[in-house]
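HUMAN: Mind making up another protein with tokenized structure?

ASSISTANT:
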Amino acid sequence: MRLLIIFNPLAAGGRSLKKLAEIEARLDKLGIRATVKLTTHPGHGEELVAATELAGFDGVVAAGGDGTVFEVLNGLYQHPKAQRIPLGLLPIGTGNAFARDLGLQPFDWLAAIDLLSRGRTRQVDVGHVQAADTEYYFLNIVSMGFAVDAGLTAGKLKFIGNTAYTLATLWQALKLKSYPLVIELDGREIRQDNIFVTVSNSRYTGTHFLMAPGAAIDDGFLDVTLLENLPRHRLFKLFPTIYHGRHIEQAEVTVHKAVRITIRSPGGMLLGPDGEFRGKTPAAITCLRQDLAIFT
């Protein structure tokens, strides 16, 4: 097996780079020929994959967090569909939400390599976003509102590790605000003020939050979670339930499954795909059913 590995040396506050030699040694021991390319700036993973001739590889691996997966995915989708090779993950970042749906725990790169070595793949859904100013693909989640605000704050706190997302969420709760949105789900319109909207392909976000407990990565649907406007004290009570997916039982939370979603808002809201920040509303989001092979 020959793999192209896109490696983010800054993932997990630089802890990932300290494991590179061990990772390469393990791959070599298993007879996997790895071509490792290190990223040097935001968006570089996408550039590297897009510029690489993929015919000589059996798969491309995103080594980092959810942001690295996002970049590698979008680089892969710059190739014609017939030339796209399977995608693999080495979850060595701060947030490794999508990896959880593959049965991989954060920073468990040994288990991830063993998974790669088996060479088994399955077809999974991919989300496509056509925003007002850009377009891209995602595997995990697209967030708007509170979740994006918290994500921006968490980005400044990544040096403290996985608790960055929790602390950022609590901080944003103190500055609570809602957003008037018009949302269409397969043609059905919803108008309401929302604290946040998430469009999920997989179950977790930020590694620990079970945002969409009913989501499946190959069912042909995206799970849309809406949190309507509510008092701050209610948000603080609701917040702990997200760890176990119990938030969907609250009256202020509604969950929908849809293939095509459009979201409009006054002024254009920033979108947060897979731990990154790209594009503004209005946005059209579509589920591409079982469009990509991944190692699993």
